[in-house]
């Protein structure tokens, strides 16, 4: 197959804002977690699949398997679909309140 480029699980993308290693980022329809820090307009590797501890809306309780969405305005995960981007599912229950949720990123484009 001559047109194959790469698996696509790790992508080098240009950041629209400064990021730290481990930040969740949404670039167009691509969501992932940064492998390093980068300034705005710099490139960094973004990982699109795997299980990550990510910031969540503290006032929510999550159940295992709940759909998890990215709120790009507040840069947190939430179980609220409206206005947010589906990124995966909760792999552990998360209490209300709690600042972190464990999320399985599915790598799908929405």
Widest β-sheet, arrangement of strands: 5-9-8-6-7
Structural class: mainly beta
Calculate the terminal CA-CA distance, rounded to whole Å: 27 Å
Overall mean pLDDT stands at 97
For the largest beta-sheet, the strand count, sense and barrel status come to: 5 strands, antiparallel
Beta strand %: 35-45%
Radius of gyration: 14 Å
> Which shape, going by the Cα principal axes?
globular
* Total of helices: 0
* DSSP E strands, number: 9
Order of helices and strands: EEEEEEEEE
**Count of the domains:** 1
Low-confidence stretches: none
Helix content: under 10%
Key structural traits:
single chain; 110 residues; mainly beta; five-stranded antiparallel β-sheet; four-stranded antiparallel β-sheet; 9 strands; DUF2190 family protein
Please give a quick description of this structure.
This is DUF2190 family protein. The chain is mainly beta and 110 residues long.
Give a verbal description of the structure:
The protein has strands at 10-14, 24-27, 30-34, 43-47, 49-55, 67-71, 76-78, 85-90, 100-106. It is mainly beta and 110 residues long. The protein has one domain (10-106). The strands form two sheets. A five-stranded antiparallel beta sheet has the order 5-9-8-6-7, with no helix packed on it. Strands 1-4-3-2 form a four-stranded antiparallel beta sheet, with no helix packed on it. It is globular and about 45 Å long. It comes from Paracoccus hibiscisoli. This is DUF2190 family protein.
């Amino acid at each position: 197959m001559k047109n194959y480029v790469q698996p696509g699980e790790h992508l080098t993308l240009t950041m629209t804002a400064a990021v730290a290693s481990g930040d969740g980022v949404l670039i167009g329809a691509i969501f992932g977690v940064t492998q390093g820090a980068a300034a705005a307009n710099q490139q960094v590797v973004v990982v699109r699949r795997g299980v990550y501890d990510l910031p969540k809306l503290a006032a929510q309780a999550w159940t295992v398997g709940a759909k998890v969405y990215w709120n790009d305005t507040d840069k947190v995960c939430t179980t609220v679909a409206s206005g947010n981007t589906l990124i995966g599912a909760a792999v552990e229950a998360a209490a209300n309140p709690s600042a972190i949720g464990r999320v399985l990123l599915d790598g799908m484009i929405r």
